[in-house]
Design brief:
It contains 17 helices and no strands. With about 475 residues, the chain is an all-alpha fold. The termini are far apart.
């Protein structure tokens, strides 16, 4: 018994050590887990309020915000954890703040001059004047990204975890309430997003960063701002194009499917991706900022430990994702029909095409920031270009043949292969045994997929009516 108690104490000791990787991970994971559970509980309610077409309109609106946020920030906020000197970090904050305010002004002017044309071009007429909230949402979002990077630098992970929970509750409550009042009008999704981003902005601002305001003002210098812009120029030169190409490649289905199949198909796809993103966001919110900070530290002090930590997290994420995402791949149509209603069954089919790709998107949480830490931002651009071209070719074939299932099947398969190769390339740069890791990973995936497929065939044979089960409408 004494040995068991000592063993337990040894296991929990890292979680009790203030500022340790284990404690920081546990704090961020707890907050992300709470948000994830809340999302799962409320999603069936939202799918019975909003039809697929509403999700399609909102998907286009969200894609516009994501693109503008990336372009306007120049990704400088991602450099905040890197400077050793606080003065340089404050200058990066000043630079990023100026870019956020400038983006607000430019987008406001663009909507004032070309608003009706943009609404027609993006085919978001159903959103009405709510579309014109875009500059405000963009400002809140850019500043929130900046604040989050500051808290990553200062290891205040508990702050972000608490704010994320409040943000999720507020946004979901407003979205559901507005949807009930308007009969599922897509504006409810926009209004919920506005409240989410505003709550996130205020929560992060009031959680401690406002105490830096005086120093930000007193230390402002155009010379220093220009100096840090030059010092970290690889972020806009390499990381920005790479990140933008990655964002664009993720949003390609929205644009291809909108033109080829209409808003309802876009809504089904968007909803399936939203559900798949939940486990990725859960682990990403918990691991990415903590790992980024720790990896940047180990790169300068202990490379063997960095290799060990990266491979350890990669393996754990693979183990954690392979079964639940495998279940989604094989049983997606059943799960969506039972949980969300018959009109969302096709979203489950789409999810099946993408499920195994998301396993590698999950493992990339352990590798994604390493190009930046290793100073290989140009590889980020090249690999994301490969991903973009592969996805565009896959979707083009499906749209040309007017077969949405083929389009998304090829999209998922191409994405899977590219992300897997990118992961292996990053592990190669760390001088890890890539061939052994790759063969072991592929063997596990094939085995789990075969077992789950056999289980589905067995259930269909033993319970012939199971394919038509559903609850609700």
């Amino acid at each position: 018994m004494h040995q068991l108690i000592e063993r337990i104490r040894a296991l929990i000791a890292p979680f009790r050590q203030k500022g340790s990787f284990a404690q920081n991970f546990f704090v961020t994971f707890s907050g992300s887990a709470a948000v994830t559970v809340l999302g799962f509980l409320l999603t069936p309610v939202m799918t019975r309020i909003y039809p697929p077409a509403s999700y399609g309109q909102f998907a286009v609106f969200s894609a516009a915000i994501g693109n503008l946020a990336l372009l306007s920030s120049l990704t400088y906020q991602n450099a905040l954890p890197l400077p050793k000197d606080k003065a340089d970090a404050l200058a990066l904050m000043q630079l990023s703040g100026l870019l956020a305010v400038g983006a607000f002004g430019i987008t406001s002017l663009a909507l004032l001059l070309f608003g009706p044309w943009l609404v027609g071009w993006l085919q978001v007429q159903a959103l009405g004047w709510w579309f014109y909230l875009l500059p405000i949402i963009l400002l809140f979002y850019n500043l929130s990204l900046l604040f989050s990077s500051w808290y990553t630098r200062t290891k205040q992970f508990r702050t972000r975890a608490g704010v994320d929970v409040v943000t999720s509750v507020t946004g979901r409550a407003v979205t559901i309430g507005w949807g009930l009042a308007t009969g599922g009008h897509p504006s409810g999704l926009v209004v919920g997003d506005v409240f989410s981003k505003f709550t996130l902005f205020v929560g992060l601002l009031r959680s401690g960063i406002h105490r830096e305001w005086g120093e930000l003002q007193s230390t402002f210098s155009w010379a220093r701002v220009r100096a840090v812009a030059h010092t970290y120029r690889e972020f806009p030169l390499y990381m920005l194009p790479g990140a933008y190409v990655n964002t664009l490649s993720a949003q390609l289905p929205i644009f291809f499917l909108t033109s080829g199949f209409g808003a309802t198909v876009v809504g089904l796809y968007s909803f399936s991706v939203t559900l798949l993103e939940i486990p990725v966001s859960l682990t990403g919110s918990a691991i990415a900022p903590v790992f980024y900070q720790k990896a940047a530290e180990l790169y300068h002090t202990d490379m063997p430990r960095l290799r060990e930590l990266t491979l350890n997290i990669y393996n754990k994420l693979l183990y954690a994702g392979i079964l639940p995402l495998g279940l989604i791949t094989i049983f997606g149509d059943w799960i969506f029909r039972i949980a969300f209603g018959a009109r969302w069954e096709m979203a489950g089919v789409f999810t099946g095409y993408l499920g195994y790709y998301y396993i590698f998107k999950l493992t990339s949480q352990a590798t994604g920031n390493l190009y930046t830490i290793l100073g290989k931002q140009r590889y980020l651009l090249l690999t994301n270009l490969l991903l973009l071209l592969t996805r565009a070719a896959a979707l083009a074939v499906g749209v040309y043949l007017h077969d949405v299932n083929l389009a998304l099947l090829l999209f998922g398969a191409g994405s899977l292969v590219c992300i897997f190769l990118i992961d292996m390339h990053i592990l190669h740069l760390l001088e890890l045994p890539v061939l052994r890791i790759a063969l072991r990973t592929i063997a596990m995936l094939v085995l789990v997929l075969a077992v789950l497929k056999g289980l589905r065939l067995g259930l269909e044979h033993l319970v012939p009516g199971i394919a038509t089960w559903q609850f609700g409408r």
